[in-house]
Specification:
The complex is a heterodimer of chains A (about 120) and B (about 120). By secondary structure, chain A is mostly beta strands. Chain A is built from no helices and eleven strands. The radius of gyration of chain B is 14 Å and the shape is globular. The chains are: A mainly beta (about 120), B mainly beta (about 120).
């Protein structure tokens, strides 16, 4: 069983729409949650991180975390063609612990924003 | 933001040869570096955790004798793929966390990745 699972893609949305990306994780001890964007052939780029239950907003991006349901999501508002990429959900140990930085990645969701 | 540089960005080698990939933190001291491997259309899989001055910790299923990791200084970790075979062809990515990097900000710094092709 995969430890981090993302909703199957690819996901296609029109420009200006909201893109919703979902992720579930199996380790209840996980404390840090990340969303990365990865363009083809490039390394991951951090979009958002969240540690506490609830919503965290940064510009057009909102991360939502529900530890009871072991669920984390990413909403992209006003989607742009430049947002087209693979989005990776990553889960890590306690942010203050020695294992911080050791991430388990989901399989990724390919997002296409069409004009 | 902090910069992590990987070299080479791509390499082609013959089967049976060894290849060394370097991961450098350019403007911070990387106390811990992580090495990931990514096969085409798959996600990143952690291979090993490298702490400066100590032996690397390998994930289950990763051959420590095949993937040699050295983290001799606070700014450099190397991954050597020994006796490379075509199935080792992959995208290898390092990430680093550093001394003084605020843990609260959540930033882990990724290198640009190194694409290895073994013929």
């Amino acid at each position: 069983q995969k430890e981090v699972e993302q909703n199957s893609g690819p996901l296609s949305v029109p420009e200006g729409a909201i893109a919703s990306l979902n992720c579930t994780y199996s380790d209840r001890g996980s404390q840090s949650f990340f969303w990365y964007r990865q363009y083809s052939g490039k390394s991951p780029e951090l979009i958002m991180f969240i540690y506490s239950n609830g919503d965290k907003e940064d510009g057009r991006f909102t991360a939502q975390l529900n530890k009871a349901s072991q669920y984390v999501s990413l909403l992209i508002r006003d989607s742009q063609p430049s947002d087209s990429a693979t989005y990776l959900c990553a889960v890590g140990a306690n942010a203050g612990g020695t294992s911080y930085g050791k991430l388990t990645f989901g399989q990724g969701t390919i997002l296409t924003v069409h004009p | 933001g902090a910069v992590v540089s990987q070299h080479p960005s791509w390499v082609i080698c013959k089967s049976g040869t060894s290849v060394k990939i370097e991961c450098r933190s350019l403007d911070f001291q990387a106390t811990t570096m992580f090495w990931y491997r990514q096969f085409p259309k798959q996600s990143l899989m952690l291979m090993a955790t490298s702490n400066e001055g100590s032996k690397a910790t390998y994930e289950q299923g990763v051959e420590k004798d095949k993937f040699l990791i050295n983290h001799a200084s606070l700014t450099l970790s190397t991954l050597t793929v020994t006796s490379a075979h075509p199935e080792d062809s992959s995208f290898y990515i390092c990430s680093a966390r550093g001394r003084g990097t605020p843990r609260q900000n959540g930033e882990l710094f990724f290198g640009e990745g190194s694409r290895l092709t073994v013929l």
